[in-house]
Sequence to fold (885 residues):
Amino acid sequence: MLRYAALKVGRAAFVVWAAFTLTFVLLFVIPADPVDLLFDPAELNTVPPEVREQIADSYGFNEPVVVQYLDRLGHALRGDFGTSVQSGRSVSAAIADVLPHTLLLSAGALVLAVLIAFGIALVATSTRHPWLRNLVESLPTASVSVPVFLSGILFLQIFSFGLGWFPSFGDQGWRSLVLPLVTLAIPVSGPIAQLLVRSFAAELGAGYVTTSWAKGATRARIIVGDVFRNASLPALTIAGITFGNLVAGSVIIETVFARKGIGRMTQTAINTLDTPLVQGVVVFVAASFALINLIVDLIYPLLDPRLRAIIPAAAA
Amino acid sequence: MSDLRSTIENAARPRRKWPWLAGGIAVVLVAGIVFAVTRGGRDADASAGDGGPVRGGTLEFALLDFQRSPDPHWGGNYAESIVSNNIADKLVWQDPDTGEITPWLAESWDYNADLTRFTFHLREDVTFSDGTPFDSAVVKANYDQFIRGDEKLGILPNGARLFPGYLGTDTPDPYTAVLRFEKPLASALQAASITSNQQPVILALSTLKLSADERTDPKKVIGTGPFVYESWEQQVKTVLVKRAGYNWSPPALHHQGEAYLDRVVFNTIPEASVRTGSLVSGTVDATLDVGTTDEQPLRDQGFKVIYRGVSGSAIRFDFNTSLFPTNDLAVRKAIQRGWNRETVEKTVLTGSYSIATSILEPSVPGYADYSGSVLKYDPDGAKRLLDEAGWVPGADGIREKDGKKLVVKLLGINNLVVNKPAYESIQQDLKQIGIDLQLTVVPIPDNTALRAKAKTDWNISAANSSRNDPSVLSLSYSPLLGNGSWLEEGTPAYDRAVAVLPKLETTLDPATRARYAKEGQDLVLDELALTNPVYNPSQVIAHADDVHGIVFDAQSRNHFVDTWKSAGR
Fold:
C-alpha cells in the first residue's frame, strides 16, 4: 500500500514539474517579447532601447535561458512565481486573491452538476414512460452541446435584464452566484449524467436486481437501495475530467458574468503574455489536477474492496 | 432492458396525468420567458428636469477593461487612464476643442528659445488628499520617477517614451519647476497634459516611496484629483468618492469647486451584450465601449450616445518602404487612391466614426484636409500610376512586373471591431485595380509577436496612435524615432524625412508649427506616400438621459468632475 501511494505521489510530482517546464519552453519560443506588450503597439518603435533593456532587466528576461529556468524553478519550489509583468503584484498573491471566487463557483457548480446528473439518471431509470425516458436521456448530450457563453447570455437576458431577479455583473453575495452556477453546472453535469444513466441501466439489468424484484421489493426500493450505490462508483473516476470542464467553463463564465476569478485572470495573462503569471496559473492548475487524481487513486481502494486485493499483488 | 421485469412493468397502463402536467409547466415557462424578454427596458424616467447641475448621487459606469493596478503612472488601458484622470491632476490641460495647452496645476509656464527648458509656475493652493502640500519638490519627484523608473521599488520607466532626453527638474523656489531636456522637445508641453496610456499625473511623495506591489493598496495611492479611491477590486470594479475641498479643476472646464457626484463606480463588464443589457435594464447609468451595431438600437430606446474621435493619427496602413513591392512609390500611391471611401463609410462605419481625410485626426492642431487630393477614390488614376511604373495585369487580373506579382501583405490588429471589415472592403477595391492585398488581422499579442519581423515580412502594418499633437508625425515616421515606414539610411527619402519631420519638435509658435505640420503631412501622404490613412476611430459612450456632463478630453478619455445626475441619486 505504501509503495502504491509513493508511486502515485511521484507520478503527480512529475506531472507538475512537466507542466512547469513545458510552459517555460512554450512561453520562451513565442517570438513576442512580454516587454513589448507594456506599450501601445503603434509606439513600439519609439521606445528607446535602453528603456526596453531596463525593463527586461528588472524582470530578469535578459539572463541566459538556462539560468532563467533554474532560477524560476528554484523560486517556484518555494512557492514564489515572481511578479506579474502587467500589474507589478506577486503572482502568488494575485492567484490567492482570485482563487476563492473560482473555488466557490466551481465547488457550487460541481454540487449542482452532481445533483442534476443524479436527477437525470434517477428519472431516466425509474420512469415508466418511454417518451419521458428518451427525453431525459437526450438531456446530457444537449447540455454539452449548448455553448456556455450562449446559455449564459440567454439566462442574463431572461432573469437579469428581463425579470431583474439576479444582478448581471459583479459580486453581490449569493444572488450574483445563482446564474453563473447554473450556467456552469449544466455542461459539467452532461458527462456525469451520461455515465450515470448508463451504469444505472446496466445495474438495473443485473442479477441481484432480479433477485430483489423477485423477493417483492418495490421499484423505488431497488433503485435507491441497491442500484444507486453500485452505480455511483464510476462517477468518481471522471472527477479529473470534471475538474477540467470546471476550469475551462470558468474562463467563459467569469467573462460573461464579469466575475473575479482565475479563469479570467489566465485569459488576460495569456493575452498580455504575462509570462510569470501564466506560468504560476498553469502550475497551479496542473498541481490541482494531479492532486485530485491522486486523491481519487488513493480513495478508490478504500471504496472498492476488489482493488485492495489487486494492489499488493501488482506492487509486489 | 427487455427482460421479464420490464415486460411486466410495461404491460400496466401508465397513468395519464403526467403529460398534461408537464405540458402545462412547459407552456407557463415559455410564456414567462417570452414575457420577460419582451418586457425588458426601464421605465421612462419622468423627472428629466433640465435645470442646473444637481449635487450628489452615484454614477454606475460600465467599461470593457479593468485596472490592473491602482498606480496611475503604470496603466495604459482605458480603465486605467480614465480612473487616473479622475483621482490625480496634471500640470497642464489640453483643450479638446482647440488643442491649446491651458493651465491646471501650473498657472503659467514659459520656455527658452531652443525648447530645452520648460518653466512651470505652480498653483499655491493645491493639496493632496492626505493633506500634504503640492509644490515643486513633488513635481520633481514625480517626473524623475515617471521618466526614469526606480529599480529598487520595481517601478518601470513608464514616461521615458514621452520625454526623450530628460535631464532633470530644477526647483528654484517651492512653486517653480523647470524641466530640462538634452534636445529641443516642443512636444514636452503636450506630453505634460497627456491623458492616455501611462501619464504624468502628480502623486503624493508618500505614494512615490511605495513599491509597485505596495501601490496595489488603493488607499495608499494619493493624488490631488476631484475623486479619491474608496476601493479597487481587480477584474471587478474601482470605486471613487468625491474629494472634499477640491477646487482646482482646469479653468478651461469652467467647473467650480468639488465634483457634483458623490461616487463613481467603474464596473468592468467584458461582454458587450451584458454592458448594453445592464444599461437598458438600469443597472448602470452609462457605458463606454459601445459596439457599432448597438448604437442605433440604444438611441431608439431613448439613450444618449456621445462620442469623440480618438485624437492622434487615423487608423492607417504604414507602408514598408524597404520591402518589395511597397518599395515602389507608384504602388503606395495607387493603394491610397485605389479604394472607395464611400463604401467603407456606408457599409462599415457608423455616424460616430469618420473616414480619414489626413494622417492626423481633425482635432489635432495643424490638421490639413487631403480628401480632395491624395486621399480620394480615383481607380483610373491608380491604374495609370501602376501602368506607368511597368505593372502589367496578369492572367488572374493581378498585376506583375519582372515576373513578380503585386502581392501586398498586411498585418493588423482586430482590437476594434470595424478594422477587419474596413480592410476587407479595401481589399476588394484594390483587386479591381490589380493589387492583391493579403490580410492578417489578429489579436494584440499575436500582432506583437508577428511585428518582430515587420521589416522583412510585412508590406503594411496597420495601427493608430492616440496623441493629440502633430508630433505624432515625427514620432511615427521620423527615421530617428519610430521610423514606421522603415526608411533606409542613405536613400533620398530618408534624408527628406530627417530634414522635414524633426522640425516639429523645434517650435511652439502655433503658425510655424502648423506650417511644419502641413509640410510633414505633405511629405508623409503625398511626396513619399508613407501611409494610407483609413478611418478615425471613436470612443463611444451610451448613457441614460438623466446623466449630464461627461467630459471627453483631448485624448478622448473621460472626466467626471463636471458630471451630474438629474435626480441627484
User: Anything to note?
Assistant: The mean pLDDT of chain A is 80. The radius of gyration of chain A is 24 Å. The CA atoms of residues 121 and 196 of chain A lie 6 Å apart.
